[in-house]
Structures
1.
Amino acid sequence: MDERFGCHTFSTGSQKAKKDSEQMIVSEKIAVAAIAVAANFAAGAAQSQQPIGWGGIVDGLAVYQGKADLDDGGDFSASRAFLRTGIINRFADGSFAGLVLSYGQFSYDFGFPGNQPWEDVRDIRISVPLRFALDGGASVLISPQLRWDYERGASASDGFTYGVFGGISWALSPNLRIGPALGVFSEIGIDDLEVFPAVLVDWTFAERWNLSTGSGLGATQGPGVSLEYAVSDAVKVGMAVRSESIRFQLDDEGLAPDGIGEDSSIPVVLSLQYAPNPGVSFTAFAGAELNGELKLENAAGREVSRQSYDTAPIAGVAFQLRF
């Protein structure tokens, strides 16, 4: 049976194509795990600088991706928005425990109405970040997570995954903290749990310069590295490169009813951040998404189509509030 995606006809993928696709997913998720741990690691370091006791965090992101041509015809654009909120209890030794909830939506606009693989995708997460301080400047991070990724109209339970990220880091100097981490996570449409290595790094290598594997743009999702320069106490400029991949359950209509969709890319952005005080920051950024690819699997788990898309412009804003 043939399926259409964009304006090109694709035949159902073979088992070899499915295996190759799963191997690519594993490679992408290794990177995803790296940033997920690193983002929590960076957040934990920042949280430890806050007053002891209970506190809260609210942050958000809105980004627009301009039109991108698909390699076999057609085009699409997309917009994304995330909102995250949580409470954190900080202790005198630098340890903390918290509960964080987030909601996100990806909205896709394909250039051929009635011939599109999916439309609006929801992303819901619940995590419990925990950090324990050890002797010698070491700390252990553990962050269990529940997640739901599904197209609007699909069952949220069909898009359910779970996992845990954990790692240990050491302060090798006042300006460098580094250590290994590991993620174990389930994946939609894949039976086995995936295990992903990661590295935690937060390095102020020169005055006003910082390199980290943390989340450089507030609530952005995806692995990468951020380089920042502090122009002043309130203003920072930076560049971030990361690999993003979202895999989600589809509804019972469209080109692959009850199938699975995936969107992956490598965004490269320049950013400008303004933080008038330690509890508030606002960020604007612009750049491009490279190496983009859309994949579609049917309900049986067979790959229906895979299309690369051209470099696409992106721009957005982010904010973070701590109290």
Note: The chain has one domain: 2-322.
2.
Amino acid sequence: MTSAHKGLVLDFGGVLTTPLLPSVLVFERREGLAEHAAVRVLLGDAETVRRTEALERGALTQAEWNEGAAALLGVPPANLLGRLFADLRPEASVIAAAAAARASGSCGA
């Protein structure tokens, strides 16, 4: 059975980019936070996890997310998500695989 649907869905952080954790740890050092403080707040607080999921669905703006997370972390909210992800880099092998899939026609254009 064949399907008329073609596509390839890839996650951003840690898939199309280098892993998230090292970037978050560098962010903590830059911001003067204790090691793993951001990890505990961003992954260990149920409300923050809910707000992150809402952000990913587009139900919460980045500015709203920044405000809430910054308050819990005790850091300025300006470009918080950008500061957290500042050290992410493209994951060349995954990007190359996605480009090859697209070029082969096995996913949408």
Note: The longest helix spans residues 92-104.
3.
Amino acid sequence: MSDVDVSAIGADRVVLSQRGVLTSFAWLSLRNGLLNLITLTLYRFWGKTEVRRRLWATTYLNDEAFEYTGRGVELFVGFLLALVVIALPFLCIIFGAQFLGPGMAMLVILPAYLFLFFIAGLGRFTAFRYLATRTAWRGVRFHMRGTARSFGLAWMGYALLSGITFGWFWPAADRRLAGRLWDGLSFGDRDFQFRIDDARREPVYGAYALSWVLGVVGYIAFIGVIFAAVYPQMKANAGSGAPPVITLREMITIYSAAGGLALFYAVALSPFHAAMLRSIVTGIGFQDVRFRLRLRWFDMAGLTVSNIVLLTVSLGLLMPFVEARTRKFLISRLETTGEFDMSAIGQAQGLRPRTGEGLADAFGIATI
């Protein structure tokens, strides 16, 4: 972490650090896993809250820890609302469309699936807003401006443009969407700023081109392995007309290829993910404070692959441990320059959302 010489009277330097002991999160992972098993995963809302509370309490700004004020019941109620209001009606529409003719079914199903892009953006925004409004430092809360609807519409439009361009618009879209989130964030009565021109100084398209090509090559190789595994069965049954029967050996080959593809993608996409994170962090500013992330693609690849292995071996139980080590990894590579007057910041005005990130949890959207 870079140190900044502070000469302005009343100004404070900015030093972020993560001081959590990773072994404590390993034990927390096992406890949460056991309680989720006993309660048939119902405990996950309170377990997630406890993980966040510990993560925030071990994250320090200038030797003072952040505070997480969210509650498990908020996440539970938010999940139920999203399930009843959006998820169940969506599933009913998809199920009911099966009884219509092919033409009518397409007229119903296509808009419904386009609506999923809107829901994805809606979920991202509400999750970010919930985390922001439940975070405090020195008693001062973060606040979020903007609406989930406008963010969801932007996400849907950008996703469609990315599909039309075979994914090549997504780097620009990803940066713009991040700008919408960070530009709407406030700490107390002071606003964050996202400077898109600064973010663009960190190139991303070269890394994206490499990841895109590697992704296509990996997918073609995966299809080739699957075809080679089932071709002998297809050839043997060609004369009889009987459908091929997947043997245990072929199933092992297919699942092994899928696991290998996941690990390959973790490495192949790392150049782009690292470049995008550097770009977004470079664009973020607060008063006179600017940020920089020292993150190379092989650092990102090592973190992602090791996280996948940990989650696979533990059947997902080590998720809190993975979250803690990821936060520690990123914060240790974060540099700051500039200063701000902490004593001049007042409390933010505005209502906080009463429920948690229900859409993100109901639709499996990862929170930030």
Note: Residues 86-128+143-188+355-368 form one domain.
4.
Amino acid sequence: MPDHAEPPTPATPSGIADAAPGQPRRRPVDAVLFDFHGTLAQVEDPVAWVLAAAESCGAPLERTRATALADRLVMAGRAGGPLPSRVPPHLAEVWAERDLYAPAHRAAYVGLAATVDSGVDGLAEALYERLLVPEGWLPYADAAATLHALRAAKVPVAVVSNVGFDIRPLFAAWGLADLVDAFVLSYEVGRCKPDPAIFYRACGLLSVDPERALMVGDTPADAGAVRAGCAALVLPAAEAGQVNGLAAAVDLATADGR
């Protein structure tokens, strides 16, 4: 990606549905961009995360101990979890670059986990490895149906994520990879949401004008797509495995009768 991505030429108003006087016009949606974490999928329960990682280290834990340890690890900083309560100075640089470089992502989250004395050799690395496998995540209950409905309606889809590792193998394991036309990952393109450049890249890969694209996410960074000219739909992240309101994206993308 060039250092200064130029926005595509704005679309003309033709094709935008007329509205009653005083009412906003509905914008056609020719493509949908989805955030990953908190929108299409959620990380597994923290206790299950710790139990699985400890088991892989050959040190199975009792659930009571795993629960206490999970609380401390989440507070220290878990990928896919809330922001850490504090980033130690020695991790500040990799933390700042975690979504731009894969090595920085690993170093940041392994380093944060290592600040918690678990008593289990290799646990910090095992916790990170759990993030890289499909079992460490749960797609939302309506994710597959939403992607299938958009494919049936011939609406192209991109996944646009601030992330420091490749999420394509997760989608492949879930049988969803063929329903996504493009993956635009921050560590691959060198831009993070809400930078307009990452949304321009996604729209370019889908051959759609940003003004005819809808970004669906769960954070202000996702809503930053409006700076690139996209429409934005922000859905509060649901608990893992639940319905996340993704049908709204299908309704908006197919409202013109596709």
Note: The longest helix spans residues 63-77.
